[in-house]
Amino acid sequence: MSNTLQSPYDHWRNRYLLMRHGHSQANQQGVIVSSPERGVADFGLSALGEQQLAQRVADWQWPTPTRVVHSDFLRTSQTAAHIAAAFGLTPSVETRLRERYFGELEGQGDDRYPSIWALDAQNAEHQHHQVEAVSAVAERMCAVIDAWEQQASGEIIVLVSHGDPLQILLTALAGKPLSQHREQSALIPASITQIGG
């Protein structure tokens, strides 16, 4: 599962492999786990997720990473550890890559997502149910790319994050309205999307 987008920059200094974490226990249980209080220590990869990561490494078809950077949630930390170990790298934490916070929906069934996405499509600034605004997610995710573009050159950086934040980032980088983030192809667990140089 590989998608490549055109650069919003005139010239990329690095290449990025945007990776969604492998299938997680939250996915398996069908629950929303978006708060650091629950997601950092619990709800890691499921057995299926572990298999996906082993397969992803065995069938690696992307450039060899020079860095692995990840959200501090357990499911992304474990995903990053698989990739880093395969290439002899030490993963580093970047809290701006965290899951989008779903506010009052925390701990509820993942069948609640579409109601939020419908609100997103109307207004990327909304914070109904104390959900983190799409615009705020885009800002912190783009800031990660901007920081690496300023401080490094010639790197191949795996950024391990979550479905919604990555789709929002890809929407922002494509120069599309953030309200359209669900029009992006859904990122399946353990998928990698290459952007940049």
Write a concise synopsis of the structure shown.
It comes from Halomonas llamarensis. By secondary structure, the protein is of the alpha/beta class.
Produce the secondary structure layout.
Blueprint: E1 15-20, H1 25-29, H2 36-39, H3 47-58, E2 67-70, H4 74-86, E3 92-93, H5 113-122, H6 134-151, E4 156-161, H7 163-173, E5 192-196
Parallel strand pairs: 1-4, 2-3, 2-4
Antiparallel strand pairs: 1-5
Helix pairs in contact: 3-4, 6-7
Protein name: Histidine phosphatase family protein
Organism: Halomonas llamarensis
InterPro entries: His_Pase_superF_clade-1, His_PPase_superfam
If you had to describe this structure to a student in words, what would you say it looks like?
Helices cover 37% and strands 12% of the residues. The protein is built from 7 helices and 5 strands, in the order βαααβαβααβαβ. Residues 1-7 have low confidence and may be disordered. Strand 2, helix 4 (74-86) and strand 3 (92-93) form a beta-alpha-beta unit. It has one domain (15-27, 40-196): 3-Layer(aba) Sandwich (Rossmann fold). With 197 residues, the chain is of the alpha/beta class. A 5-stranded mixed beta sheet has the order 3-2-4-1-5.
